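User: My collaborator sent over this chain with a note saying "see what the structure looks like." That's all I know about it. Can you take a look?
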Amino acid sequence: MHLTTIALACALTAQAQTPAEPRQTRAAQTDQTVSVSRAARLTIDNYAGEVVIRVWDKDAVRVQARHNARTKVDIHADANIVTVGAATPVKANGSIDYDIAVPAWMPLKIEGHYDFVTVEGVQSDISVTTVRGDIVLKNIGSVIAKTIEGAIEIDGARGKTALSSVNEDIKIAGVSGDLSADTTNGSITLARIESTNVEIATVNGDITYEGQLPAKAHFSFSTHGGDITLTVPDGANATFNVRTYSGEFGTSVPVKGPDASSVRRGKRVTYTLGNGSAEVELESFGGDIRLRRPGPSRSSRK
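Assistant: Without extra context I'll predict from the sequence alone. Here is the result:
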């Protein structure tokens, strides 16, 4: 009896430790591949579910979709566009999970309501709009991404990047090119940024920036109820225009300008680092503004 109990316990433990079968290994109810020309673009309309897009080395689009038996996925291709969506009414669909392979050069337009979107490796223009659902983008070209009840995460982008959320955070890393991001009830974090034009805004959240400050660049960071922390790279030259109404200004960067304790709250104050070639606007109504050097925080009050 004792040996039987041990054997049963070992079997249950092994079963518990076996990883769950990933969604991608389940058989697709729809699996169709269409050839495309270099002039074509892809449009996806998915009311609810997941859309996962990765690249491959073929001038073709492969659509694998997992859905209920009542749903039919319509894939239509002509010389200029490939459209993917449900052919049945929305209420009859349930959710649809897509795994789609596309050539790296193909422009994308993705729209949905309860939609979680992941795009990786696409080097052309990308447009993503969803109401409720996260958006994850990796190693891409230009992008416009908008969501209301969803977070946005981007890691690696070359080209113009425009991101907008309402009730979640935005995380941005490894981006080069013009960059704008805004959210209402979320924080915005930026790292490894190489851009000469950055505009970041949030209402109820913090802004954290780590990246380059190129000569003649224009950066704008504004928040109503949060803090702004800007990591200034060694050797940078910048003019910082600072305004805070209820917060404080602190710096561990050797800027030139008036002592913050002598400045009236809400007044716009200018500080200069080096020759001041980059222009940086920093404004917070209810939070602190900090300039810091790379490495462990050593902020001190100016």
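A starting point for your reply to your collaborator: The helical segments are 2-17, 90-93.
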